[in-house]
Amino acid sequence: MMRLRTVIGMLLCCGMLTGCGTSAAPAAAPAAQPVPLPAGDPVDLSFFRETIPQKEETVPPVSDRYNSQITAKDGTVLAELTGGEWKRTEDGDKYAALLDTVTPDAVVGPDINNTLRLDTVKTDKVSALMAENGFEGCVIACDAKGGADIICNYPADKDYASAPNFNGSTAKILVSTAILDHGAEQLYADPGSYNPGGHVYLNWDGPYAQPVNRTLMNAFQESSNAYFMHAACELLHHKKMGETYDRYFGYNCFGSAALGYYFPADWMQIPQPDWNSILGDDFELGKSAIGLSDQVKITPLYLNAVTGAVAAGGIYELELRAESEPHRLEQTEDLPENIRSDLWKMMYECGQWTSREQFSDMNGYRFHVKTGTADTRYGAHNENYLKRLLITGFVEKESEPVCVITVYCHNGAETGLSSGGLAPLYRQVAAIMLEE
Question: Do both 263 and 325 map to the same domain?
């Protein structure tokens, strides 16, 4: 008996029996036992294996879903969306380069048409004139608030209108605006030549045995290179010219130096040069004053917009789409009336000095123009000669601008126009635009 009690006491003290209060470890909980589910019907999992029937749907071809078109003012179809791609019609082939800039942003969707302001009847007449005279280039005609009625490239597949190029003495419109804007000295003893840093540039009739005393009006109408180069390099400099160009003409107001500058149109972004690319370079600054800088070439479309700003007093976005309303660019200022009035007088006198016959009044309409010529040579030995000819201006009646027209001839050295000039063709274009 004593031995049995001793064994039990030892077990209690070792914690092997419950109720021993001397053990530091808690007692383990009894293991949980699984509870059997009540018997019942088996779960039906067959729906995992069933094939859900799909509703048959016929997807129409892209051309049926998006039967968009691009049409001209009179309803002429110029391009259609076929198989997901824009394809020109036979009529549209006459405007190939222009349509290539329109189609990337054309809106597509069921029954959506893209109607352009483009006047195909007048454009075809202008194209025929260009063909008859054998000149490559472009003609642009807009109202004074940027509405484009004619953008005619010839040949049709060459994009002269929106390609940067030399603009010759038409650049003197911009420089004259800067002279007036900053109150620069307008009297100059013109020697007939000017060296802007590395090369002597002559006036068309220079150099002179004795300097010719010029005013801004005289220098503009006779297109003195020396006068405007001197003004750019010695009176205005880079900063003042850039301020004026930005303020009134939207130059470098859109885009950036890193991504590229542009002038806005409702169908494309018209490329613009970076004005600061010639900062500190008097050679290029001087050449820019006569439209011959290699680094600040501008497009005929932008030149037309600048001319429109002179005509209307403020610059507008270029509009080709029929539904677009005139859009005055808020980033710019209106030309002060005194500057605008002076530019009108200068451009009128320039036309009279250039050709009184071609720029005489037409049924009460008056011409205000600036001519330009850009002579360049190219090739390994400068053996090739290229003469670009330009006239930009506007037609007004009773002090109201009616039409802004820019004519650019790329191959002037190879055509009869190199001797006769663009004036007769410009007058014919104006007559077409004024037709009812």
Answer: yes
